[in-house]
Write a structure and sequence with these properties.
With 179 residues, this protein is mainly alpha-helical. It has helices at 5-33, 39-65, 74-107, 114-141, 156-159, and strands at 164-167, 170-173. Strands 1-2 form a two-stranded antiparallel ribbon.
Length: 179
């Protein structure tokens, strides 16, 4: 049974909570070791922290959130992993761009403490990047893609009339039996 969108969002949010702990934990550990207001340094810290969270995200989202959508055939698994890496790079880029932009604005007048300004910028980056990640994972990374060559030899008007048999391994097409 395919989980509803609401169930996927809840699961994604729970896993997101563990990602936030990893992400902010690593980011603040690096800030504690070497405090900085320099956007370039903060982007490096952020990239390291986000990569740690992305590894956690792939593992748990594949096993739990998008379990019903994941692929079992070897070629599909590699495609899924490649797409996840692309989504992960997109996540890092979006997160870093938002963090750098917000950091520059917040640190311009030194109205907030370094810790508060850097973490507020981090929150903004996480919120924007998480939204992009959910959409990418749901509609691209863990999407069930049709098998290569499936239905290419059947005329388009006939394919429409072929009933679907939903099995444990996914959707397969079986021709209708003559009556």
């Amino acid at each position: 049974m395919k989980p509803s969108l609401a169930r996927q969002v809840v699961r994604f949010a729970l896993i997101g909570g563990s990602n936030v702990l990893i992400d902010f934990g690593l980011y603040n550990l690096l800030l504690a070791v070497h405090p900085s207001r320099n956007p370039d340094t903060l982007v490096i810290y952020n990239t390291i922290a986000v990569i740690g969270a992305i590894v956690n995200s792939y593992h748990w989202n594949r096993l739990w959130t998008f379990r019903s959508q994941r692929l079992s055939e070897e070629g599909g698994v590699w495609r899924e992993r490649l797409l996840f890496v692309v989504q992960g790079v997109l996540n890092v880029v979006v997160n870093d761009l938002v963090l750098a932009g917000v950091t520059v604005v917040l640190n311009r007048n030194h109205l907030l403490s370094t810790y508060l300004a850097n973490n507020l910028a981090k929150v903004m980056g996480v919120l924007v990047a998480s939204s992009v990640s959910f959409l990418a994972m749901r509609y691209v990374v863990f999407k069930r893609w049709p098998a290569r060559g499936a239905g290419k030899d059947v005329p388009r008007d006939v394919r429409r009339d072929v009933p679907r048999d939903v099995s444990r391994r996914g959707v397969s097409r079986q021709p209708r039996q003559p009556e």
